[in-house]
Specification:
This protein has one domain: Thiamin diphosphate (ThDP)-binding fold, Pyr/PP domains (Rossmann fold). 40% of the residues lie in helices and 15% in strands. It has twelve helices and ten strands. It binds thiamine diphosphate (TPP).
């Protein structure tokens, strides 16, 4: 453990993430909020690959790698153990927190997550969404957006990247009537930090879904991560919201969207899109916002 890093309230440092990695930013910021009594559970994915390189373990708090499918169920066990241990030691400020990628959440770990919410386990599950299986070389996940090129959804003359829309994990967990769920992006890091802080004080299952660009997979310069992560919310292709006490609420409701076309065209993974493809994406964005604004207020 590096004492000077802990002095600065740093719990994720010295890792091997690529330059400009959005996921590592999310883990670092969340652990600053949760502190040294957070026990982190990470399944296979970039954050475990870059954080557990023995002997250079990169967590100032306790952290463990779970089975790919089992982030939420391991969190259940960790929380039960921590509860007993903390009672014996006489403290209450502990957290069982998961950091799983989009593949590990929306595809492989969705059953364990659904079960944990159903049991009402007192855990915080954070999905850092880089919109593909990045650690194994950019394969499509259930959260890859429509039109994106990945190694398993190539772009050619007939098919223009991914032909399926992105699953809506936020609304999927909300449909379980979870005590707290939120969306966020590393582009609005204070909003993310506030949501982690809020979640840390709520009992029961909490879920936060944070957009975390991957320069390698998205085809953007490493210096553009935060800007692009902001633009996705500004152009309306992502929304910032909370679900609490059975109600949805936008935490940011832009009066006007910035150009979704500009957001798409700056990324290598969307380079092949035709004007027609972009119009399809904008149309689906507009229909989504129309529904949200009608139903959530
Ligand atoms: C059961 C199982 N299947 C497949 C793998 C291989 N694998 C390791 S990491 C990974 C990709 C993870 O993608 P995601 O969850 O989106 O996180 P990211 O890598 O993008 O951070 C895969 C497929 C594995 N470790 N275990």
């Amino acid at each position: 453990m590096n004492a000077s890093a802990l002095d600065k309230n740093e719990y994720f440092y010295g890792h091997k993430a690529c330059a400009g990695c959005g996921g590592s930013l999310a883990v670092r910021a969340a652990l600053k909020v949760l502190g040294e009594r957070a026990v982190a559970v990470l399944p296979a994915g970039c954050m475990s690959a870059v954080g557990f390189n023995f002997p250079q373990l990169c967590f100032g708090n306790n952290a463990i790698i779970s089975m790919f499918a089992g982030t939420a169920s391991m969190l259940t066990g960790v929380e039960a153990g921590l509860r007993r241990y903390a009672r014996r030691k006489g403290y209450k400020d502990f957290h069982a927190v998961g950091f799983a990628g989009d593949g590990g959440t929306a595809d492989i770990g969705i059953q364990a997550l659904s079960g944990a919410i159903d049991r009402g386990d007192d855990i915080l599950y954070i999905c850092y969404d880089n919109e593909a299986y990045m650690n194994t070389g950019i394969q499509k996940s259930g959260l890859t957006p429509y039109g994106a090129r990945t190694t398993t959804t190539p772009a050619g003359a007939n098919i223009h990247g991914n032909i399926r829309p992105k699953k809506n994990m936020f609304e999927i967990v909300a449909a379980h009537d979870i005590p707290y769920a939120a969306t966020a992006t590393v582009g609005y890091i204070n909003d993310f930090i506030n949501k982690v802080e809020k979640a840390s004080k709520i009992r029961g299952t909490k879920y936060i879904h944070v957009i975390a660009p991957c320069p390698t997979g998205w085809g953007i310069p490493v210096s553009d991560t935060v800007e692009v992560a902001r633009e996705i919310a500004d152009c309306g292709l992502w929304y910032l919201a909370e679900y609490e006490n059975g109600e949805y609420r936008l935490t940011r409701d832009p009066k006007e969207f910035t150009s979704a076309e500009a957001y798409l065209r700056r990324q290598g993974r969307f380079k092949h899109l035709t004007d027609e493809d972009i119009a399809t994406i904008i149309d689906s964005r507009d229909r989504k916002w129309e529904r949200i604004r009608k139903e959530w207020k």
